[in-house]
Amino acid sequence: MRKPAHNPRDLSLYDLDDILGTIDREVRQRFGEGKVADYIPSLADVPIDRFGMALATPDGRIHEVGDARERFSIQSVSKVYTLTLAMQAIGDDLWKRVDREPSGDPFNSLIQLEYEKGIPRNPFMNAGALISADVILSNYEDPEKTLLEFMRARAGNPEVGTDEVVAKSERESGFRNVAVANFIRSFKNLDNDVQDVLDFYYLQCSLCMDCVDLARSVLYLADGGHCASSDTQVTSPEVATRINSLMMTAGTYDAAGDFAFYVGLPAKSGVGGGIVAVVPHVMGLCVWSPGLDEKGNSALGRYALHRFTRMTGLSVF
Ligand code: DON
């Protein structure tokens, strides 16, 4: 009879600190790969030779390495949390306004919006994130406070805040976002003032957090919707599962296929160089390294996640 395979979800099988140490050494030898985002002037100043990684488990343990306590601009990673808030507000009605398909196009693409009549392909493209922002503006009394409190509670860190300089820089350079928002509005798929929607979107992108904050804050998606930091049920297990599936198919834009192939975890990236990932029922992770590949995902962050799932067998496949 065939011996049962080992269960990769049994964390007692690994020395996680040793694994993180190995990844850190490997990554530091590759510093310089990728290119820091420079289309938002305030992001262009971030040094490229940074790497941090953190893992958070539902029992409250954290494993971290490198620059895991250095804050960075979370950018599109925020789309996971605004999607959660939008789903909390209107449930499945959200899917009348945004689709759930991978796009195969860059995050700021306008192209599908024309022939798909203002319905964004998924909630993680900029177009889809603007729908989540619009839903939040329509359904929460104080949207900014709601988002900040949500992030602080998920991270278990009252210090989480936004960076005004980044938000201003985005507002001054967000020509494509202005185009996307107006385009969607022309199909009557935005209810609020276009500038208000954009301002909320810039604010969410300017949230500043570190790898430990983000690993903790994504834990509710690994734990059936339960947030360990605040001991609250944030979403139903079903909603958590659905958000994970969207992260798998669309969280890294037109590199989602490659991510599934090499990493095999639901993940969401941002042009600040952060990537959050989820091992369902096991842990939340965050990696950060500012050099981006040509698809806008952290080059060394992707490498680190790839090495992690290879060394542990913790891919979902
Ligand atoms: O919309 C933008 O240009 C940025 N503020 C957010 C983009 C982002 O992080 C996309 N991710 N890879």
Short description:
This protein is α+β, with helices and mostly antiparallel strands. The protein is built from 13 helices and 12 strands. The chain has helices at residues 16-29, 78-90, 111-115, 126-139, 143-155, 164-173, 175-186, 194-205, 211-217, 219-222, 237-250, 256-262, 299-312; strands at residues 35-36, 52-56, 62-66, 72-73, 161-162, 207-209, 226-227, 232-233, 267-269, 274-279, 283-288, 291-292.
Describe the model.
This protein is an alpha+beta fold. Helix content is 44%, strand content 13%. The strands form four sheets. The chain has a five-stranded antiparallel β-sheet, sandwiched between helices. It has a three-stranded antiparallel β-sheet with strand order 4-6-5. Strand 10 and strand 11 form a beta hairpin. Helix 1 packs antiparallel against helix 13 (299-312), helix 2 (78-90) packs across helix 4 and helix 6 packs across helix 8 (194-205). The two termini are 24 Å apart. 6-diazenyl-5-OXO-L-norleucine binds at residues 75-76, 107-108, 126, 170, 177, 205, 269-271, 296.
